[in-house]
Amino acid sequence: MYKTILVAFDGSEYSRAALIESSNLAKRHGGKVIMVHAVYFDEEEFSLAPEQREKRFELGKKVCYQARETISSEFGIEVESLICEGEPPDVITDIAAGKKADLIAMGTYGRKGLKRLVMGSVTSKVIINAPCDVMVVKRPCSEYTGEYESILVLFDGSQFSKKALEHAYELSRKDNAEITVLYVIPRYEEMVGFFRTESIKQNLYQEAQKIMDEAKKIAVSNGVSISTTIQEGQAAEKIIETANALKNDLMIMGSYGWRGINKVIIGSTTERVIMNASCPVLVVK
Q1: Rounded distance, CA 94 to CA 116, Å?
Q2: Does 190 share its domain with 260?
Q3: How far is residue 24's CA from residue 148's CA, in Å, rounded to a whole number?
């Protein structure tokens, strides 16, 4: 499925979880894994403690070597590692482009005392600028089995959401995972600034049903069985509620979506989903 997976790695628990998740994908579906350790060191810091720069590079080499040995022993796959200096989001996206990676895997938080790798502006920068799909992992590494039994796909009929659905099919064929397709009806008042009538409510639900019917047709054409659900309300809240209720172990979303609204996924919705999701979130570009 993914030929080259790049893992943002700093030795923290969540970056190890991202590495394990990536190694599971590579072992089950084929492909190679590349670890990238970003050493961030600004000029002011260098002038105050120049010796720290070399220490951080040595620490990066050490944690990457240990991780490679562990992955090689447990998964039987070879992992490449790169130690680079620079802002984490720039290093991650630049190397992903140079290595022609088709997936970037990241943990939600970095090591204590160092700049956080993912949450906040770094997450948005990587997702927006990445040349490929991005998976954000939040669970501790001890909870990963390498298999997906239940996948939630966020679908609105857009091209990006159709690609998300296709990715779910590919994973399902290998793991025989159950797929649930979710559409969240946007709040009409927030979209157009008017209170909705009963007629408008019916129209919104009819449109939602058409979107779900489209998802079912795509599923039938791919020989895959899916379940569908329609929710209404604040998108991030409904996404998290549904994932928790279904106990999904993977969520897949397009990088942009929701008809009539520009770039809803990138921004507050993605941030809230990633921060509160209890499973990995795969953002399809």
Answers
A1: 18
A2: yes
A3: 11
SS3 assignment, position 282: strand
Which residues of the chain register pLDDT less than 70?
42-48, 109-123, 139-146, 187-196, 256-268
Find the length of the chain: 285
Domain total in the chain: 2
How far is Cα 34 from Cα 100, in angstroms, rounded to an integer? 11
The pLDDT tens digits for 114-163 are: 344 444 456 678 888 899 999 998 766 556 666 789 999 999 998 889 99
Q: Is 108 helix (H, G, I), strand (E, B) or coil?
A: coil
Q: Which residues form the domain of 235?
A: 150-284
Element (H, E) at 144: none
d(CA 5, CA 58): 24
Amino acid identity at 44 = E
Neighbours of 261 (CB within 10 A): 15
Q: How many CB atoms lie within 10 A of CB 256?
A: 18
